[in-house]
Design a protein that fits this description.
Elements (H helix, E strand, L loop, with lengths): L1 H26 L1 H4 L3 H29 L11
Helix pairs in contact: 1-3
């Protein structure tokens, strides 16, 4: 459940929303006078969510195969 919520949040909010915002900001940067700081913040957030999504996918795969990060082996 926790994996699905985080994955859903990252995919719908960050990838759909933030990537469009980054694209629009780059395209209209001069017209809107968007600061470099704001654009870099958006890019870092998308990269963070991409990393989190990969981590959750790896955790989900480990859970499917019954592996655990902690000592003790099978869940």
């Amino acid at each position: 459940m926790q994996i699905w919520i985080s994955d859903f949040f990252c995919r719908n909010f960050a990838f759909d929303g933030m990537e469009k915002e980054i694209y629009n900001n780059r395209k209209e940067r001069k017209l809107e006078r968007i600061t470099k700081f704001r654009l870099k913040s958006c890019e870092k957030y998308v990269k963070l969510c991409s990393f989190m999504e990969k981590s959750y996918q790896n955790s989900y795969i480990m859970l499917q195969y019954g592996e655990s990060n902690e000592k003790g082996g099978v869940l």
